[in-house]
Amino acid sequence: MQPPEAAPLSKAAQAYNLQLRRVDTLRAQLAELDALGQDQRVQRHALLAPLQQRLNVARRAWVLTLDAHLAGDGLGPRHRSAAVQSLCEHARALAEAGEADMVALHDRHNRESLAQLRRAAARTLRQQLEAMLDAPLQGVDDEAGTEALWHAARRQWLDERDAVREKKQARAEARKTRGSGAAAQQLAELHIDADTRMRRLFRQLASALHPDREPDEATRAHKTALMSEANAAWERKDLVTLLQIRQRAALAPSEPASRTSDAGLEALTLLLKQQVAALERERAARQRDLALEHHLPEGVSANAVSLQGHLQAQARALEIRVNALEAALAQADDVAG
Question: Which residues of 302-314 are buried (b: 16+ CB within 10 A; e: fewer)?
Fold first, then answer.
């Protein structure tokens, strides 16, 4: 901010302010994604949990009804086979949901136990996924189940894709740095200046906020908290947070902003650009994790519209399944039904 009579900002100052605004915007977007994720979890539970409970109740009644019919001799061979297949399918779904008594009921009617089927399905799926990834599947074993294997594979594929992109960006930056002439030399010097300014700022904070130098307990606790925050910001090269901590601690800058040279602003802008790039990667990772958590289709970005639309579609599909099973139960008491 400048008074009306002040001279216009230089291009270096304008670029610096632009990157500051981008950092603020990205941080606000990350906060929005966190709030969106929490809101979706609440809505998902409120909308799907009652339907899932209805489905589980209907499934249990259906499994017990089929079990009773299979104990008699009213079903012919073809209908008996279909009843066994349906019973095992729904008993397995209930067992996956935590209803332990369904495991024994499933195993009584099926040639292979539920544990054997799980292991076989997991082994087959792992082989298929590792063939698709052309690499071993990391961080999950076969006992975790097929859904966990799918999630692990998708996450590993996305991580590898992001790593390839970062390598390409790093190579592009390296080519710029290795370039010939004054431009490459100027860029290298700018990197050195940026690192020096960041280190100078952190040392100023470390010196002023050292808690052992403060006799007052409350002030010492406040400085300890600020220093911990500054250490974390230093680790992730977060220039904006370090500047904010200096402001909150009421420390005078080593060089007033009004007297910062364009070269100094360019160095700080370089740091801000690096921070913007890191925040953009974090935003992409948050969106990716949201998409994974809420089972969005591949290629669909996680936002309020896509998440809400997918949730409504899941609710409609689940309600159709519940209604169909409840309608079947209504006529399942007699063999003909």
Answer: bbeebbeebbeeb
